[in-house]
Amino acid sequence: MFRAVWAIARKSTTGGSRLKTEMSKASLATALFFFLCFMSTLVSYVVYSDSFFQSEPENNYVMLVNSPESFDSYLESKFEKIPDYFETYFRHETSGTYYDFVKYQNMLSRDQIALIIVFPGNFNDQIASLANDSRPEILTYYDPGNENSKGYHETFTKNFFPEYGDELQAKYGRTAVSSDIFAIQEFEITGTDTRADSALFAIHHMILPLLLFIAVMYSCMETGMACVAGEKERGTFAAILLSPVRRIEIVLGNALGIIIRTMAIAGGILLVLLSLIFAAFGYFSIVQVVSLLLLTLSLTVVMAALVLMISIMNRTILAAQTGFLPIFFLMLIICITSMQKQDAPSILYYLLPFYGHYYGIAAVMDGTYSIGLLVSLLAICLAITAALFFAAERLLHVERFTLYADSGKDLARERRQRLWERRIRGKYAASPQNRVYGYEPKRMRSGTWLILYHLLMPVSVLSFFQTPALIYPMIDYLRSGRANTFFEKISTSASDVSGMANLIMRFLADLMQTKEFIFSMSLGYILLIAVYVFIITRIEKQPLSSSGLGLKGAGGVRKALRSYGAGLLVGLAMMSLAVFAMLLSGNLNITGIGIDPSQVLLFVAYIAMWIPQGASEELMFRGYMLPRISRRFGRAFAVFFTSASFALLHGANAGVTPLAVINLVLIAWFFAELSLFTGNIWTVSAAHSVWNFAQGNLFGLRVSGTQNTASLIHTVYSDNAMPLLTGGDFGPEGGLIVTGVTVLCLLILFALRHKLKNENRKV
Predict the structure, then answer these.
(1) Distance (Å, rounded) from C-alpha 215 to C-alpha 263?
(2) 99 to 102, 113, 150, 284, 288: CA distances (angstroms)
(3) Phi/psi of residue 340, nearest 5 degrees
(4) What residues make up the domain containing 319?
(5) pLDDT at 177 over 80
(6) Are 185 and 327 contained in the same domain?
(7) How far apart are CA 674 and CA 571, in angstroms?
């Protein structure tokens, strides 16, 4: 097995596409947009950041690392005549890092620390068991160029440490001798200025992670698209499948080739960058180098598995590159959101693939990354990669190729003939399972055109119909006194982009509390449905049943109503389960039941809006987009693409977090699988509508970042509520509880589908 895997790996390593296939216009436009976003983020931080121009902070504090209780008691006794002096000017930290120069240099530069005193973790044990001339070492870090830092250091080394040593001698009944009870090792560290801090932040949190992501993505794509899709394009993959090599060996061999080639490029770039950083800014440890290499390797392994899946699902390099576009969009979101987040992320982000790699690279460079997080992320990446390899192996089992016998024909002409046939017949996935709702295209479209069309269509149509919905509510708003306050705040926040954005979001939140706006939105969704129906029936000449809206036939209306009712039960059960979990865990409290009489009409308006809102989004993504993408690229890719597009459409909502985006993808995945299971979108339309209604108007929670006051049950988060579980400002869709509920429902749906498939086989 190893010989076959290694042979395929060597072939994949040396067989990159060499850019023989031109980059699609969509990929080029996305790359340029990504580059502009990165440059604007970098410039806005480095050039306009306040910290870039601020003066050196005055160092007044002493950091005690692993300080024993005896030393704290000694210092408290020294300053007992000065109230709260010890609590105010001494800070404590526990760390297993003894010689972390980069971390302590940052403390001296940015955190107003004058002196850092580091005790060994087992200081008390070493003092209690002194033997021969061995003595525990206390490390001191200070900046000799800073007068405060230099003065603090002299005071401790000349006065405090000798007195503290005498106390320890007396405590253990020893006589003070020429050899002190502990040793002092001094380190002089020149603090960096704020410009260097800004440069280091930009390198650690922006430039280095971004360059590694680009290197890994480009190399994986350049090699991976050629290893299978390139073989198909050249007509040589059939021979590989007919050889005695097992499918899993083909997968592992190609993946190994992608990984070797990518690590050769990305690893080389990493080592060069680290050398430049070392030359410019100084010391870093071998642990940091190893951690960065492991993070890069795990990122490469997961990316290689994804690229290999895409390469297997496509017949040409260009089609595979187009299929890689959603992955590129996902990486864009991860990089941009990670650059913008300057505060410390929660531990969950460090465990999520891609997010964990980005934040992990920055944390390693800052000296704040732990071995536990690295091992956990590597284990998660390994599990995901194993699942992707298994899926890729199963995909190879359904590949079908036609062999052409050599009958003396001109091989070049035969190859051109085969390519022409693939171009005509191979445009669309031939497997029957890829014909969702019986959809059959009447004309062929290029993959690039199809991807761009379905990416832009929902955004364009929603923008067109939701904008008119703002006209009447805005006119009414401008006539009221609230408008004056709003414009006053706008004028005072003109130079504050984030403040402007918050004001606009609050303005929209105010509109969501007016029945006029809600009714206008409802009308907009109804018109949106009408436009899609017109496109399907009049422009594309397709029956409505091809989009999962079948009504014709015996009992068609009755079946649709039954499916819609089942969807209402599914959506209500899912949200009720999530709310019950929040109540049971103590994260949510019920404060009352009943609707204020003044809110009844608004409550009715919300019901009138949620029904077409859920139906319109399901028609856009699961009714219109899913069958068309599935017929072109296959069902698996269609489910992923529609789910990612659905999440991206909601990515600009207030309070959105990376976990919220992941949950939106999972929910959309469940809706896609449910529509495929039922063969229509009536069920998912109802489930979607009642899901939103139950969140906002039944349980009084936020719906994708939007809060409304017309709810039947009044709830509030408890004082000790965890936003990681509840979703915080985004609502339940941004919390781990909804993650668990959605994954549970997906597993139940898969089990039902498997059971039904087995029963059909028996029949």
Answers:
(1) 9
(2) 9, 17, 20, 10, 13
(3) -75, -25
(4) 2-47+195-405
(5) no
(6) no
(7) 11
